[in-house]
Amino acid sequence: MNSTSLFERIAQIIELVLELKPGTVNESTSNQSVSEWDSLNHIKLILALEDEFQCEFEPDEMASMTSAGKIQEALKNKLG
After folding, report:
1. Angle of helix 68-79 relative to helix 3-18, nearest 10 degrees?
2. Which one of 17, 34, 51, 53 has the lowest number of neighbouring Cβ atoms within 10 Å?
């Protein structure tokens, strides 16, 4: 899977979980820039990503996944 299609899938999941308008997520979208990205929605987002990509994140990975770009990095590392 190339980086563009990976990011598109990540962005769609973020938009779905956080109920954002389609096309609003970019690599800098973060828990600091989106008020809907609170601790509960962070857990929902992690679970949705794990389900979509059939993987499991460690607690330290979850804590570092604070932006769309960091999520992409974590998934690239996880998926190889």
Report:
1. 130
2. 51
